[in-house]
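Exam revision sheet. Question 4 asks you to relate a sequence to its structure. Input first:
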Amino acid sequence: MAKVNFTAARVDAHQCPQGKTQAFLWDAVSPGLGLRATASGAKSYVFQGKIHGQTVRLTIGDPRSWTISKAQEEARHLQTLIDAGQDPREVKAEQRASYEARRAAEARESVTVAEAWADYLDHLRTKISPKTKKPRSATYINDHIKLAATGGKPAKRGSKQTERGPLYPLMGLKLSDLTAKTLGTWLESEVPVRPTSAAYAFRMLKAFARWCEGQDKYAGIIPTDCCTSPKVTGALPSSNTKDGDSLQREQLAAWFSAVRAQPNPVQSAYLQGLLITGARREELAALRWEDVDFQWRSLRIADKIEAGRVIPLTPYLASLLLNLKRRNETPPTARRLRTLEARGEKWEPSPWVFHSLNAANGRIAEPRYAHNQAIAAAGLPHVTLHGLRRSFGTLSEWCEVPVGVVAQIQGHKPSALAEKHYRRRPLDMLRMWHDKIEAWMLEQAGIVFLPG
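Answer key, structure tokens:
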């Protein structure tokens, strides 16, 4: 092939003849340097050489960006690689891979806790829990959102503003900055103000760190000792149960009187149901009418871990639920029916036992306000909703109920070998003991109830 000395005029004048797809002009100064022109009018400097008997052709760049001398210098560099037995294409691929690896490393180092937390929330929403083999509950997801919330927004109740979540100060940090020192300092500032929330937030953060370690995108970024260092564990508050978070026998009369006086019969029945069944708050709130069997006096509870458990429906609680069922199946006023029709909606009974017109999912969502009102009206020390579950287990001892019976009703896993492998209490046996517990509670509360 003929070679010429590249000049600006020759480079500018080179064109692709008609009838051809491309044409080359080769430089006489730098071996392998060529100028390619295509039928579309595009031009580019190229390099062509041979390595191990195979022809190699690479594009150098556009003549408008590359001067002749720079193109000749690049061609000599590529020829040097070939002379050394290196394929310029492989060298270029290695350089690109190295560049992309550096960019990826920089991105990994710059990712923030908030960005990874958002991915973690998406994982919780869309994946099945390996522990329960079920989707995570909306309450569990919402807890994670609240933990990292900025705060300062109008509260749903009253004129106050929401508080920032305990994890919010960590959200702006880089993921690599979640060191033991950082978490220790964070706990030292949060624990004195809200120890329970800080401990709960730390447990969620610890699970988040484990999840990050299992993701290719985030693996190896968070220091391994960030949650296990003595600097961190030493700052954690004690996990002992709060003293007094349980109703005493002599407090039952005041508690039942205040709860039964609640204007909302759904909330009243729900709170009494928590104490009488010892169920977890979300278990009872998720109760549907299809889970209630009035004929055989049973409730199917969606258990926290297992597929579900069936517990007795005691006589007094059955009367409360029957009242709710009648209210639920009673059509609303004509005015409300017209309002629903105007919205394009049709009235039908709620599938939820403890339904709520104001809740987004149609069932009771926040009963703490009503319970706190009842506690204050009764003049009792503060008792949490979980304290009612604790009260059931404690007060049952007055009736000398076997511990295994209480555990089975509450949905606790067996704690002894005999309970785990050799105790299978049928529903009628549980009912016998559960009826005694309820009757004793009503007697202490001074409630006269005659089963129908």
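Marking note for examiners. Residues 249-445 form a domain with the hpI Integrase; Chain A fold (CATH 1.10.443.10).
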